[in-house]
């Protein structure tokens, strides 16, 4: 009897627990319905905001499915084709590749007889192939004007950089410009709140000085050249930052003016660095090396927020760092050729020839 009572009590306890769970589920539904609300404007707005990046990603992926296939056909090594770039439709192509409703087959060819006799690029007789047997090929010939395929067969970027001393020096130089430009630009913006007076007004002025700085760079770049503009901007900003250290703190107006002039020079360097870096590299590697320089340059923007903490040791450490790096980058700019009036280099040889008389040409 006692055992049966224990079993009944356990069963009743489980039943009560299940009822409580059901009640909790019901209560949760009530909370979702009455307290959070049903699907309304708030939920619709959130759903739209979440869907926007998904739609943008779909737009980018759509190119993969809508782009046309690169024109290609089977490679015929029996007729002297040893790489992937030849005429897609030579006179003898139907001797080696079957014809389809859309032209010639892209992935199939006639089985070679392997009789020990080979043709040439100009002459490839039908006697070299068994036209009754069609096989799938593993190597192809592509349209020679398709640059994506051409680049895939070209030497690696790293190998070309190592083999070209001129390009190697530029790859080591331009990232330093970017490090300095971002370090000084963002460092001055962050340190503006340490100036005397209203922090808000100081920050507004530091941000507003970018406007004349950007316009000045646009006006000067085509007048005196990229090299002169960037080097002068680095030296000017460095001079202002170093001078700022020695301006007495009680002279608020002069300190603010010198600080603003330093930020003005930094704004000019930011705009000029983009243009000058792009024009130093050949078309084939321009985006990759510009992106590499910009990526390495983010070291400066990462280090900039740490500079205010250095004031606890000496108030002039951040400004002296900005000045020294500006001088170093200004000197490095002088090691590169002027690109004003030069034709944008398309090949590595043209990029190496920048600054020489033979490379001068109207854009």
Automatic annotation (TrEMBL):
<feature type="transmembrane region" description="Helical">
    <location>
        <begin position="200"/>
        <end position="221"/>
    </location>
</feature>
<feature type="transmembrane region" description="Helical">
    <location>
        <begin position="167"/>
        <end position="188"/>
    </location>
</feature>
<feature type="transmembrane region" description="Helical">
    <location>
        <begin position="228"/>
        <end position="247"/>
    </location>
</feature>
<feature type="transmembrane region" description="Helical">
    <location>
        <begin position="253"/>
        <end position="277"/>
    </location>
</feature>
<dbReference type="InterPro" id="IPR011701">
    <property type="entry name" value="MFS"/>
</dbReference>
<keyword id="KW-0472">Membrane</keyword>
<dbReference type="InterPro" id="IPR005829">
    <property type="entry name" value="Sugar_transporter_CS"/>
</dbReference>
<dbReference type="GO" id="GO:0016020">
    <property type="term" value="C:membrane"/>
</dbReference>
<protein>
    <recommendedName>
        <fullName>Organic cation transporter protein-like</fullName>
    </recommendedName>
</protein>
<dbReference type="GO" id="GO:0022857">
    <property type="term" value="F:transmembrane transporter activity"/>
</dbReference>
<feature type="transmembrane region" description="Helical">
    <location>
        <begin position="289"/>
        <end position="307"/>
    </location>
</feature>
<keyword id="KW-0812">Transmembrane</keyword>
<keyword id="KW-1133">Transmembrane helix</keyword>
<dbReference type="Pfam" id="PF07690">
    <property type="entry name" value="MFS_1"/>
</dbReference>
<dbReference type="InterPro" id="IPR036259">
    <property type="entry name" value="MFS_trans_sf"/>
</dbReference>
<feature type="transmembrane region" description="Helical">
    <location>
        <begin position="313"/>
        <end position="334"/>
    </location>
</feature>
